[in-house]
Amino acid sequence: MSRVGIVGAGQLGRMMALAGYPLNIRCHFLDRSADAPAAQVAPILLGGLEDPAKLRQLAHGSDVLTFDWENVPAAALKKLRGQVTIRPSVRSLSVSQDRLLEKRLFSQLRIPVAPHAAINSLADLVRAGRELGPHGVLKTRRLGYDGKGQAVIRTVREQSPAWETLRGTPLIYERFMPFSHEVSLVAVRAPRGEIRFYPLTRNTHQGGILRLSIAPHIDPGLEGRARTYMRRVLKALGYVGVMAIEFFVVDGKLIANEMAPRVHNSGHWTIEGCPSSQFENHLRAICALPLGATHALGHAAMINFIGKMPDPKRLLQIEGLAFHDYGKQPRPARKLGHCTILSATAALRDRALKRALKQIQWA
Fold first, then answer.
1. pLDDT tens digits for 42-90?
2. Which of the four pLDDT bands, split at 50, 70 and 90, describes residue 146?
3. Which position among 108, 149, 232, 294 has the lowest Cβ density within 10 Å, counted as fewest Cβ atoms?
4. Count of CB atoms within 10 A of residue 296's CB?
5. Distance CA 350, CA 341 (A)
6. Quick check: is 91 in a domain?
């Protein structure tokens, strides 16, 4: 039996724990809340994610340590090096936690990114608007996810209000990219360097939160470039585990938006849609087990339940639909669960998707 300690016990950790049971991998967690989704399916230590004593306790009972959220304190995990194997590496975590460092890594690896600038004052923002264009997005460099810590700027007059909203922390300004759509690539890398890719996924966001994913998104040219870029990042970081990179598609070209050093929301469809899900393959990789197959078993769609849970009785009438409830208390903009539709053809999937969307309200 392999023992995996996971820092953070959200729905991603929950799905990792469930994927581990058939492989005789046992996960246990550290989280601040006894009501965290993963606590319903595996043991949990209660404490702060940066608590040195709790982290040591988690490490002591683990063969390998991982995390289900990229904003866990990297500095605290650094202190555990030498005590337990940490996968992905703390370096990978640190780079992903700072949007400026992330952009620098992409640029060093010849991966296109939006023109951007570090912002530490209103004067910096005014200068960036002049040099990069007034239409852009001001973001916190750290701790931003699901649209949090961002302000869209469309005109020069909106610069000052955006600065007042986000000031007090290091920021980054990015030129707005006129993208036609958004895609993501999920991949897994083993300790000896083997890489497997899941099919490219097309994503729809609203308010910075993922609403819908469609896979496979069939575009051989885009997928080939995405794989090339992903391979560069994984190799540069000596990465072990699952990673996702989100891209904007602008004039038929990929512009890297951000990476996630963990299993990813846009890969939830792989639970039903691939021989080995992203959750299973993350555990296989970090536990040095052979990687599983990642090809699509059909045509899939994944819909997030946000703010309000739909009636499962209605959705489960749809053929090929799988329902996932994370056991979380509803509140606006909170991811509460998801459903996945898997069909033999894209046309069948799209018909089922249309039926499902009629039953779902986002709050």
1. 999 999 999 999 999 999 999 999 999 888 888 999 999 889 999 999 9
2. low
3. 108
4. 17
5. 9
6. no
Q: Report how far apart, in Å, the C-alpha atoms of 16 and of each of 10, 48, 67, 271 are.
A: 10, 21, 10, 11
CA–CA separation, 107 and 101 (whole Å): 10
Q: What 3-state DSSP class applies to 151?
A: strand
Same-domain check for residues 40 and 148: no
Total structural domains within the chain: 3
Tokens of 109: 């690896």
- What is the extent of the structural domain holding 196? 181-357
pTM over 0.90: yes
Where b means 16+ CB within 10 Å and e means fewer, 18-33 reads bbbeeeebbbbbbbee
Residues 11 and 146 in one domain: no
200 and 274 in a single domain? The answer is yes
User: In terms of domains, do 80 and 119 share one?
Assistant: no
Residues 202 and 287 in one domain: yes
Mean pLDDT for the chain overall:
95
